[in-house]
Amino acid sequence: MGFTLLFLLVSVLVVTGLYSTSINNKRLESTYIQQSIKLKLLVSMRSIGRERVNLLFSSATYTDPFEQDDALIKFSELATQFILTRDKFRSLGLNQEESTNLRRTELIINSTSAKQAQVIELIRNGNPDEARHLLVKSVIPAQIKLLDSYNQLIELQSSIADNAIAKAHDATRTAYGFVLFVMMILFCLGLLIAVFVTRRISSIETALFTEKELAEVTLHSIADGVITTDQLGMVTYINPVAETMTGWNNMEALNQSLSLVYPIMNVSTGQYISYIDLITTLDAPLVGAEDRVLIRKDGHEFAIKDSLAPIRNQHDISIGAILIFNDISEARKLSQQLSWQANHDPLTGLINRRGFENKLAHAIKDQKILKREQALLFLDLDKFKLINDTSGHLAGDEFLRQFSRMTETQIRTSDALARLGGDEFAILLDGCGIERAMTIAEHIRQNIASYKFEWEEKLFEIGVSIGLVMLNEHIVDATEALAAADAACYQAKHEGRNQIQIFQGAASLNNQRNEATWVQKITQALEHNRFLLYYQRIVPTNTHSNSPAHSEILLRMLDDDNQVISPAAFIPAAERYGLMPSIDRWVILHMLTWIKTHPAPEHTNYAINLSGQALGDNRFLEFVVQALTKAQLPAGTISFEITETAAISNLSQAIRFINTIKQMGCLFSLDDFGSGMSSYTYLKNLNVDFLKIDGAFVKNMTNDAIDRAMVESINRIGHVMNIKTVAEFVENGETLQALTELNVDYAQGYAIHKPEPLPE
After folding, report:
1. What does the pLDDT look like over 740-758, one tens digit per residue?
2. pTM of the full predicted structure?
3. Residue 465's beta-bridge partner residues?
4. What are the Cα distances from residue 523, in Å, to 224, 518, 528, 582, 618?
5. All domains in the chain, ordered by first residue
6. I want to staple 573 with a disulfide (CB 3.0 to 4.6 A). Which of 87, 103, 515, 541 is the partner?
7. 724 contact partners, CB below 8 Å, separation of at least 6
């Protein structure tokens, strides 16, 4: 009975204990489920935070704007997901300690969000380097601090769970203290296992998240090469891009010295550079110079740009370094190519004016220090324009290339040949005295003079005028040296072309400076109408002829004192500085206006001179057509005079100009005929009405049989071609009589009429 009662009592106690245990278990289960849900939500919030930093870091490394936008959109979407998760966590009910920790976490989040916003702003403003710098310096350390806060919340949930289990255990022990000892032992053992597992999982999870944060947030999946090291400079991680560029995979590189895995060399000095010593003292990001190459394991070299920054833990203690680098081989190659193009002429491959001026400046500096002899040649091709005008620019370009190659063979490797522009070249002769420089210049001149350039069955003979200047203590800089050489070259042109002139000091430069002064005077004369129109009559040699009256229109200038200036004083400067088309326009407009206000007898003709520069100006023809159309003068009132040299130098433009203007009722004269080469060859291509025989033959024809024969020959050819002839420089009656005997049609000169101003 007692045994039965005891058994019943034990049974009741056991049942009661079991029931109490069941109630406690359910309570414990509810608490566990709630804490598990909270734990999962905290883990999710921590993962979202880590993923957002991952996306932000990726966006900072992307070069494709669409990839950047995609990353930033996902970054924003995760923010929404984070808010929903946080609100769900709050809805589960928080105790005071949980609420306090959550508020502290949110404060860190707000601080981190501000820095993340700065990073986004930098990315959107196109400053990815500064964005990455801010990430590594501020955002990532803040994120690590945030992870620590999440870990504290996770540990708090574990602590709450532990407390619930302990309370359940105490209740069970109080109610069933006398329950079987074995059950107590089993319960205690289960409790110990639960505590051990919980703490072990928490410890492993913390370590895994910390390591993953460092690897994934700062290193993984970025477009640049990334290597991380510990404080001793031993590699702890290498990403796929870095594996490709270094030739080391992650497993091979692990725990290897950074200098071994990432050997870089200074291109300029050839010395290897090591970052090992910097890692232990590095306290801020360091950007490397761009003159470095990375030598891959197989020996292949990459031009690289890199940066090194410290990695800090949540206590702001440096635990290693992160090295970010990228391949800039193509960029450096492009930069070198652009640099070459900036200093070289694309047509000939020679250095251009900019590159030559740099070399010349260094040579002048060396001369002043070392007293080393240096010479400068300035080359200007003679009659080069003839190639362009008769055969086109392709032919001209080919001649320039051939000229460059020929000239390079005449100089030494230590010398420098440059194309300054157009048909102007320069040569810097290193360590060369004046006699040697003259010899080299003469060889070049002779070589070009004897060279026959052939293009489409046409042969051209091109000369070269050369100016020579020695670089000495009187030459201050490259600009002055080129000006001196140019002045000497100009003198060579002025003296008859195809020759060499040595710079004669200030006299040569004064000529150029005087011309520059004339340019100002010409410009002012054009603006203030200080030019004057003169005329000189052209009369038939046959006094019984009914030929109409002719007059050549001549130009004069008024100076500041209203003194008349001869064109011989200002025309050379106008030709050299390209002002002749403007002067020609002034003459045409004012002459057409004068004719409209001064009616002349029928068939009166006025001859207006045109420059070679005007013939070469495509807009000038359009101007003349418009001016003549507006004037509406009778046919034959205007004739235009162009020199033989100008016509031949601009042959295609001259033919087009003549044919167009003749259709408008104008006549044409070919001036100074006989002064150029191959005059008769080109004459048959020019539809002119008058040949003006060069005055050099006319003025001495009564004393020189050859000059008389030349005049006679030109007159006969003109008449065969139905072209009237005009003799210039008729200065006496004897010459006029000789021209009459030769049946030259017209005469012009001081013996007939001295130039005088057009009537007001």
Report:
1. 999 999 999 999 999 999 9
2. 0.46
3. 380
4. 61, 8, 9, 9, 22
5. 20-218 (1.20.120), 225-333 (3.30.450.20), 344-504 (3.30.70.270), 516-757 (3.20.20.450)
6. 515
7. 689, 690, 691, 718, 745, 746
